[in-house]
Give the backbone structure.
Amino acid sequence: MRPTLVVMVKEPHPGRVKTRLGRDIGLTASAWWFRHQVAALLRRIEDPRWDTVLAVAPDVEGLQSRVWPAHFPRVPQGRGNLGDRMARVFRTMPNGPVCIIGADIPGVNRARIGAAFRALGGHDAVFGPAPDGGYWLVGLKRQRPVPPRLFDGVRWSTETALADSAATMKGLSIARVATLQDVDTLADLESLSR
């Protein structure tokens, strides 16, 4: 069963992506940063060892968009909070290991993704933690059905997001890979440039 890497992306419109960063540097500048960050990320992670799929939002515009490279298959994220959308993605991907990543983590590369898929060799699930209590990657081996209440009740954008998410995976063995910083604010950008 071939691994699948899913990248969650939004159309890079000012005021619709990276709004917290936009409060620090301006909405147009934050959308520009996101667009170029995603383009660089996609170049860094494309690899013959796994299939890369873009989960796009908004659905119709994302499926038709010319912003992202056309050779990546696309699926709509659909409605709901982040957990609803990620659970839907896990349920709709082909059989085999699936990892989902955000698009705003400059430290992601092939080696990091490879480590996550290797971790699924001996575990049912994997997380790539972020320093703020969230995570940049979540993966499922998918040899069992996706947990029916996956991501229910997760307090998103809080220091408990990873712990809350793991709690919805009762009975699954969970691995962790490297901690990486996402970019939500100017302070995040500055800490990465140091």
Notes: The first helix runs from residue 19 to 25. The chain has one domain: 4-193. The beta strands are 4-10, 51-57, 74-76, 98-102, 125-129, 135-140, 174-176.
